[in-house]
Each structure stands twice: as C-alpha cells, then as structure tokens.
Amino acid sequence: MDRLFTPWRLDYVRGERTHECCVFCGCQLEQDEETRILHRSRHWFVILNRYPYNGGHVLLVLNRHAGSLVECTPEEIQDMSVLLAAMERTLRRGYDPHGVNCGYNGGAGAGAGIPGHFHLHMLPRWNGDTNFMTVVSDTRVIPERLEDTYARLKPLLAEELVGGGL
C-alpha cells in the first residue's frame, strides 16, 4: 500500500484552529505572504485555499464576518463582481484552463466548511483533471506547491486590478 503524507492537514482533520476567532477573521491579522493573501480591498480579500481542490484554487472572502450573500451590502456585491472578473482573468492567464468553476456553499447544510464567514471558491479546471486518486483513495493530487501558486498568481492579479479601484 502506498502512503501519501500530508502533515500540514493534521490541524484541519482534528478541527483545531490556530485562532480563537474565525479562521478568515484571524488570517486578516497576519502577513499576506504567510497566509497567502493575494490581494486586499476595502470589502474583500483573495487568498489561496489552504486545502485546494486542485492547483490555483482561490477564495474570495468578505473582510467582515457575515455568513451569506444576502448579508452583503450593495457596495460589497459590486466590489465582489469586479474582483471575481479580475480573478477569472488572472486564472486564465496564469493557467490557461479549459474552464473555471466559481461558487459558494450557503451554510453547513450546503457543504460550507466555514459556514459563518461568507466566501466564494474559484478554481481553474481542465478537461482531464479528474483521476482515480479521488475516487479510489479519497485523495487529491495537487501538481503545484502553494508557494508556487502564490508566486504565479500574485503579480498577475495585481496587473489585472491596476486602475480598477480595488
């Protein structure tokens, strides 16, 4: 039997948090490179998913602690749409995917891992990006280190947002 060691996931598996507050509220207090925050705006920040579905998986996270889209102000929704479009262009430039998934899970019943803090997932997808590992062993194979994803996407997103007011 093969072994795939992922020691960085232990805290996640155990449900332990390094912050007493919400993980998204807590990571805003840390350095961008340490938490892999790609961009901060007045209402949102973009961060790499620490446990990605595949390479390039990012989260657009509301700065304030609110649980759903309907709790967002019109200004927050407007900024979200600008940031989503910029992030899609960034992912397309950085990875040349066949498609892009974007969405959110509205509450624990919908599968939200952090249901109390509104965030959206965005990730590049390729026609052949499914493999037997997920089906057979409930394991994801990520072909790029988070550090490399951060280095790839941060400057591209900054270019996309120049003059955009975010």
Explain this structure.
With 166 residues, the protein is an alpha+beta fold. Helices cover 35% and strands 16% of the residues. It is globular. The mean pLDDT is 86.
Contiguous low-pLDDT stretches (5 residues minimum) are: none
* Average pLDDT number: 86
Topology, number of strands: 5
Helix/strand class: alpha+beta
Considering DSSP H and I runs of 4 or more, what fraction of the residues is helical?
A: 25-40%
Biggest sheet strand order reads 1-2-3-5-4
Per CATH, the class reads Alpha Beta
- Helix/strand order: HHHEEEHEEHH
* Rg from Cα: 16 Å
| Second rung of CATH, namely the architecture | 2-Layer Sandwich
Shape: globular
Distance, first to last CA:
49 Å
- What's the main sheet like? 5 strands, antiparallel
Q: Provide the domain count.
A: 1
CATH homology superfamily name: HIT-like
Set down the secondary structure blueprint.
Layout: H1 10-14, H2 23-27, H3 32-35, E1 37-40, E2 44-48, E3 58-62, H4 74-95, E4 99-103, E5 119-125, H5 132-137, H6 146-161
Antiparallel strand pairs: 1-2, 2-3, 3-5, 4-5
Overview in brief:
A hairpin with a 3-residue loop joins strand 1 (37-40) and strand 2.
Attribute tags:
166 residues, alpha+beta, HIT family, subunit A, 5-stranded antiparallel β-sheet, 5 strands, 35% helix, globular
